[in-house]
Input
Amino acid sequence: AQKVTQAQTEISVVEKEDVTLDCVYETRDTTYYLFWYKQPPSGELVFLIRRNSFDEQNEISGRYSWNFQKSTSSFNFTITASQVVDSAVYFCALSEAVDGNNRLAFGKGNQVVVIP
Amino acid sequence: ETGVTQSPTHLIKTRGQQVTLRCSSQSGHNTVSWYQQALGQGPQFIFQYYREEENGRGNFPPRFSGLQFPNYSSELNVNALELDDSALYLCASSLAGQVPPDTQYFGPGTRLTVL
Output
């Protein structure tokens, strides 16, 4: 069984502030994959970043950065210098490589509101 | 844009009816996964299709069924619609056989309302 928890439901920030989204996951597998997706009001899920469980290096991609801590089963995501276009629901997702089936288990999402 | 398309965009049905939703995968992708997203919730995995066969299923009853065609496009069929089936239905395409597994790219979704 797998489970993804995103504790914060709605986060409001003023434009140009940083926002960090928390994600805690549960899995029994030693090999797994973590993702962050963005869902704007249009509804389409947009892939942002992924991290493989066997690579703990944290990275930065433009205004996005992530902090993967295997010891605490956390995969936090930060948007630096937020913009109004960042307003959306953000989902953390977990995929386990079992049975050749890479199904995704999603958290409930974080509604991010960037105030101009 | 991902290149994954879904039709129709919106659909209104009444309880007990049947519905078919369609998805065209991104060029080069051979696997389609379907998800149901109720209002205010994260997407829930319904099933995945690869090589025209079901390749894994989530906790959904048999009245949810699907097809995949030789061009890798897919259909989701729901029989005997219930009010709780009202949701956004998302399909995602990916390329099977990759190590690590390929990222899933989503379409814009079909909003189904059951009255």
Remarks:
- Chain A touches chain B at residues 4, 33, 35, 37, 42-47, 50, 52, 91, 93, 95, 97, 99-109 (CB under 8 Å).
- Chain A has a mean pLDDT of 90.
- The radius of gyration of chain A is 14 Å.
- The first strand of chain A starts at residue 3 and ends at 5.
